[in-house]
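Posting this for the archive.
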Amino acid sequence: MTTRANIVVIGGGLAGMSAALEALHQTRNAVGVSVALLEKEARTGGNSAKASSGINGVLTRTQKAQGVADSVKAFARDTERSGHGRSNETLVHKLTEDSTAAVTWLQKEFGLDLDVLAQLGGHSAPRTHRRPEVGGKPQP
């Protein structure tokens, strides 16, 4: 089967699905533009579907609702400390500054319930957002 597309996204994990969705949003009014998502596995989801650790974010509605005191500065400091001097400052800044928007986007765009917070290794505050467990097991 041959499929033609103007935009091809390789990989159906969280990053690939996010890229494909953003491409659709950016081209929704463009005539003749199509987006294809290619995944080598039988199911989409990639490592994101296998992982149960969650996504880190600060100053989110979940943290606010649970009274968690956190900041971009603290997240950056924790990330740099975990990198033992090998962290790329520009990338740490990007990760920490954009973390609120990333978590919010997943909650709004996909309707994900990311209202369980965990404080994982290296963090000075609970900032790992997870979905609630089902049957005593973490959800990806």
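The beta strands are 7-10, 35-38, 55-56, 116-118, 128-130. The first strand starts at residue 7 and ends at 10.
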